[in-house]
Amino acid sequence: MRFNKLTFSHRKSIYCKILRAALLISKKSGWSSVSMRKIAEAIGYTPPVIYEYFENKAALLLGLTRYGFVVLSGELMQARSASAVPKQQLLLMCKAYWDFASDEPELYRLMFGVGTTRSDPNGLEKASAKIDSLFCEVIGDLPLAPYYTCWSVLHGLIAIKLIGKSLPWKISEQIFAKAVSDFTNVLVKN
């Protein structure tokens, strides 16, 4: 029994190393530079070991995308738990979303297909639905149009910055703060 636990723990460790290596390679050289061979070199294994975890690069990118949604969901839950007041929760959650995109631009690009092809839009519905549900828990039973309008503005500002358009980050932050404040007043009544 002990052997099985160690094996599972060891496999999980390798899985995490693979994801971290792929993310580091993407940060240095972009997603097109990520390969099973480069990942294997980075973690000190042979490429066949990588294929034990991921069938191909598309499967690896899908795994990374799911990981990104798990991390983002965790950050949103943490932000929401910092206040009991719905308006403040929404403000904190939007800020956490913004900060995630700022801190992890490569992962955000992969998750949302910004400047790249989204790895598997159909297979990620459950992962991305968690993000929506976290926000909807705060805003309640409003029509979804205002929520999606808010998300579109937030995501649009992030996408503009990530694809390298000329809108300065400071101005983006100011627009973000104003938009989130305005939308919070519409989306949350208390």
From TrEMBL:
Residues 12-72 form the HTH tetR-type domain. Residues 35-54 bind DNA. InterPro entries: Homeodomain-like_sf, HTH-type_TetR-like_transc_reg, HTH_TetR, MT1864/Rv1816-like_C, Tet_transcr_reg_TetR-rel_C_sf. The keyword Transcription regulation applies. Keywords: DNA-binding, Transcription, Transcription regulation. One of its GO terms (molecular function) is transcription cis-regulatory region binding. PANTHER family: HTH-TYPE TRANSCRIPTIONAL REGULATOR BETI (PTHR30055:SF234), HTH-TYPE TRANSCRIPTIONAL REGULATOR RUTR (PTHR30055). This is TetR family transcriptional regulator.
